[in-house]
Batch of 2 targets.
Target 1
Amino acid sequence: MFAREANSSEIIKGAMADIIFLANDCEKGEGPAIAKKFGIRGYPTYYAVNAQGEPIERWIGYDVAQGWADRVAAARRDTRTLVEKKAAFAAQPTADLAESMANDVATGYDWAGSVALFKQARDLAPERGDALTRAILTNMVSSEDTDFTFEEIRAEGDRLLTAAGTTAEDRVDLGSMLMDAAGARGREADGLPYLERALGAATGLPDDSRVARTVKFLQITHALLVEKNTPRAVDLRKSLMPANWLEEAKRLNQFAAWCLGADVNLDEADVMVLKAVELAKTDPERVRYLGTAAEVSLKRGDAATALERGARALALDPENEDAKDLVARAEAAQAGKTN
Amino acid sequence: MRRSLPAVALVALALVASAAAAATDPAAPLTYDKALAMARHEGKILVIDFYADW
């Protein structure tokens, strides 16, 4: 999403004018070595560094253009290193430092720690409450389902939905986040009112709205959960794929992964992910697609095929933790069947 | 071994030159070292987007 908006968003273009920007593909060229040097754990992760290469800000995920530009502005405003900021925060907490620390710990997937720090920032700067509440909500939704209850997440979402500055596009985003949070906690029914309100807010938005894709995904969820119309959901999902996607390995895998997550259309997903395996150009790609293929097999109740696919992935990358986990689960599923 | 001042200056010049080349040739792939040299030369911070083309 960042790459798409970097070419169209005046906010991002403005922020770019004041910095040197490096797009580091973590799977190509020098990219993996640079990612390893910085200990990158997830994508996208952003680092702002000084001329000595020392981190001065870091954050994970891309939400909206203004949020990204705000992090860049924070890095330019206070060019102390993160180590120095941490010491300053311990001595004299400020809202800006709390926000820096919150983003810092989020890059280590410490969502609970991150949310606590964002809340501290909000207490210190209530005038920035809406932006910080959005960060709190985003981090809560990113967390494991055991970190925060749906009630805690809903409270932050409701706070934003009633805020004066919340736009129709924000309402679509918020509905999507709350529906996702509800689904991740097995509380789909509690998310549906937010889904309906988000789709209501989307009425009248232009086709090129920044949330156009989010609206489509909400329509897909609506087709699955409310209309109970799986073929329509699948057709809507296909309509979101780019031209020639049937010839692109990563797109085929993406579609199969969606089918897997929604637990629909698994026969077609199986065909498509196997085509992705065939089309893969590198072993890391092949391992990833074999992983999806094995998951599809498991979901279809075919443990033997899942094991064969998992073993192929593991043979290509013996240290791959996901492949090891897949093989273990496939073996357990097979043992369960034979016992 | 101590590095003489001229040698340091040459290294610095080379970095600035490569940064300038990268800045003037939009087709040239920007590397981490070049980006850092550009940041140093222009007095800006460097922002790195760690992504994967999935």
Target 2
Amino acid sequence: MTVGILSRKIGMTQLFDDGNAIGVTVVMAEPSTVVQIRRKETDGYDALQLGYQEVVQERRITRPMLGHFKKAGVVPHRHLFEVRVDDPARYKVGDKIGVEAFTKGDKVDVMGTSRGLGFQGVVKRWNFAGGPKSHGSHFHRGPGSVGNCVKPGRVVKGKKLPGHMGNRRRTMKGVEILRVDAEKNLLVLKGAVPGPRGGMLKLTRKGHG
Amino acid sequence: MDDILRAVEKQQTKQEIEQFSTGDIVRVHERVAEGTKERIQVFEGIVLKRSGGGTCEMITVRKISSGIGVEKIYPLHSPKVEKIELVKSNHIRQARPYFLRRLRRIR
């Protein structure tokens, strides 16, 4: 059984586990609705298409999307995503999947978009050591030499250089769930997860993209 | 969003904590595990600092132990901190009385 949900990062705090303080991330996930069921026979794979966050005003989404939701007979949602399942027959369109799909101690993969840090130099982006700050040094935070001369006469592919950092999709694998609060739709995850507070996160059971 | 976070923290913060502030003299009862046994160690001193909020709140307590200044930093809401007693309330002018570190003798 594979289940995944979309959620939003609320923030980090610390909790105690018999004297040891552990950094945790609190994540809120209102239940997602099954909009469509993908079957091996028709689509080539078994998955659920889920909708997250109901749309209040219908004009907020495009007409084609509205038609898709109308056909399924569910309230329009702002976000659509898919999760693979082994047993699609267990679900039907309109079912709700919330935080209770997970239990304490489960391992999940957390997918999110990392914080965008803009154009960064080589010291921050690739942990280059940089040069001495003083004592007559003219080499401070620059990337230094990027290659040889006539042979090979070009910069090798993949050379670590300054550029845009962050704002990329990142997945944390095997994050432990420490607490499930079905009443408030909250999950408490061990450690840090990608993205800023309020950022979207997709949680799936460990090892099931 | 912060309210939700505070609510999660609240499940683990201690409900009754004695009111005290920096400059006060407190007695911290800490549960220390020795082998399989557990005993209570008491550390009495002056509060230099209270920092952080929610479950992350920490206190720094300073005392002079056989002529040497000793400071211990405790997480206020740790289950290892059994209780904190207020011994004496002092009025000080500084928010954080770090000047005590430079004094020859205190108490």
